[in-house]
Amino acid sequence: MSVIRETQLNLRSDDRGSLVAVEGMVDLPFEIKRVYYIFGSKPASRRGCHAHYHLRQMAICLAGSCRFLMDDGDERVEHVLDRSTTGLLIEPMVWHEMDSFSPDCVLLLLASARYDRSDYIHHYDQFIELTHMKSRTLELVA
Ligand code: TYD
Fold first, then answer.
1. What is the pTM of this model?
2. Which of 10, 11, 60, 118 is deepest in the core (most CB within 10 A)?
């Protein structure tokens, strides 16, 4: 499966404007426990630069654009988010970095759990070691 997993969200537009609703277990595969958003990031800033052991997230770029680097240890892909109707799923054990923020970028993150510092993997070397350990274990049980 590709490291880039996008969902097209349902846009409800009429002559008053547009609305997008996102429901847990309907528009994304988890219940939403936490919402945070990132804005005012400088174009040269780099955010993220970590993976999570358990957390599942969906990123939606509500305004402007930014670039994601997504890496599951096998595949490493750069991907631009620039639509408020596209959700990018960030699964556990996916290293992600964000950069190239447009000045008007507002990036919304919907998360499956409350903030937990112990769920973060901050070192890329450790992340690669863990993903390789996981694939070796899967090979052994196959
Ligand atoms: P940080 O993890 O550096 O953000 P990013 O992943 O975009 O690089 O978070 C910045 C600060 O915000 C840091 O002090 C932790 C805090 N924070 C919370 O308190 N709650 C949250 O849900 C998140 C994501 C971060």
1. 0.95
2. 60
